[in-house]
Amino acid sequence: MKVFNDKQVWFVTGSQHLYGPEVLQQVAKDSGAIVNGLNSAESISVPIVEKGIVKTPDEILGVCRAANNDPDCLGLVLWMHTFSPAKMWIAGLSELNKPFLHLHTQFNAALPWDTIDMDFMNLNQSAHGDREFGFIGTRLGLDRKVVVGHWEDPEVHHQIDNWCRAAVGKQAGRDLKVARFGDNMRQVAVTEGNKVSAQIAFGYEVNAYGLGELSEAVNSVSDADVSRLLDEYASTYVMDPKLLHDSDLLKIMQKEARLEAGMEAFLTSVGAKAFTNTFENLTGIDSLPGLATQRLMSKGYGYGGEGDWKTSAMTHIMKTMAQGLSGGTSFMEDYTYNFGGRGQILGAHMLEVCPSIAAAKPRLEIHTHTIGVRCEVPRLLFSGQAGPAVAVSVIDLGNRFRMLVSKVNTVEPPADLPKLPVAHALWEPEPNIQTAAAAWIHAGGAHHTVYTQAVTLDTLGDYADILGMEMVVIDENTNIRQFKTELKANSMYYRLASGI
């Protein structure tokens, strides 16, 4: 069973009637074998569904319209087994509103040197047909993924899956509702944005709900549900037994469990899979949820602190993309620097870092929260798993959204942090902290990010291409002078592309 078994990617093969029925029968047979092979590849997370051979403009238009109208179809893989005159594709591609991947392959891997003849050449001419098809995609100005290589190559499977996950991310955005409890943190710029523009670009709705509505849901949680969650905490995390036996500590734990159950019930009732809150507006719930938010994120909900709905939405979208992959994904904040040695960034937040990124079993502790309201809040403490990761920031530039991606290498902290009462991750950005931080600031990147060790840079690039969104990357090759030139060129391109 595939990871995203409730969705499909359609496989469509282009040809024409010129070659006669016997060739078309072989084309159909070969196409079926390729689809079976792709579905057998464990690295491809979405089922591939064969949709036959298209040989005329009407057949092409029909399959494109069918894909548009099928809610389970994430997109199409298109391959030209033979030569498929590309004027046939104009009407279909012009109406297609699903993303497509152009697979530039051929059925056979190696040429049969001793037997090759013109019949073989006419049948196996993807090098010919795919170039014709590639021209019409470029002529129509269509952004698409092009994957080159033999269909049995694991690297081809990997590239196809990157694109499939990007298509999953697009659909997750289209299906998403973000619930805002309270407004954005006062006077903060980068967490603001145009919600209508975001819905047009990404598909998700951003709706506000009163704290009174949330508090009603929290107060409606039964004692039995609270007890069930407390038992789950005890069996899942490292925790001092006194948290559930000391009467004062138990009340704090019960309050947090009630928050978790009430928040999840409310989000379910309004169909939201992402949410925000702010420490400046907690009327009715008295404390900023800590453990509750961390656990909701671990279940796939998106979260953004201080009303940051863009990061909340992107957290859920990237968590959806990452299903079935190793490594976690979390809301994060670039908190403080270590300029000693190579240069490092300590990422954290007041409370809300997802345990999916933890290097070891998290510890559940109660500590005093002092920002906005002073209260005792349970939270999970851990350090992030070492290894490569990316930090992603989506910002609103007024005429477009920009996705900024920074490649980093997460490391183990050189010492314990016994007095830091929050989860955290320590990383070294590529190519170094001086260049990475300067580039981030030049690009207008936010202090909030989505941090992931699961979603690849290639998948994020495919996602940006599918949405027609600007993506800027900070990596081992970044040079500030060239980076600033890239930003200026991007600005000109997107202004011209939007007709401004």
Automatic annotation (TrEMBL):
Domain L-arabinose isomerase N-terminal span(s) in chain numbering: 8-171
Domain L-arabinose isomerase central, first and last residues per copy: 177-324
Pfam families from the UniProt entry: AraA_central (PF24856), AraA_N (PF02610), Arabinose_Iso_C (PF11762)
Binding-site residues for Mn(2+), renumbered to this chain: 306, 333, 349, 448
Entry's cofactor comment: Binds 1 Mn(2+) ion per subunit.
EC number: 5.3.1.4
GO molecular function: L-arabinose isomerase activity; manganese ion binding
Keywords: Arabinose catabolism, Carbohydrate metabolism, Isomerase, Manganese, Metal-binding
Listed GO biological process terms: L-arabinose catabolic process to D-xylulose 5-phosphate
Top-rank EC class of the record's enzyme: isomerase
Cofactor(s) essential for the protein: Mn(2+)
Catalytic reactions on record: beta-L-arabinopyranose = L-ribulose
Protein name: L-arabinose isomerase
Source species: Vibrio eleionomae
High-level lineage: Bacteria, Pseudomonadati, Pseudomonadota, Gammaproteobacteria, Vibrionales
Originating gene: araA
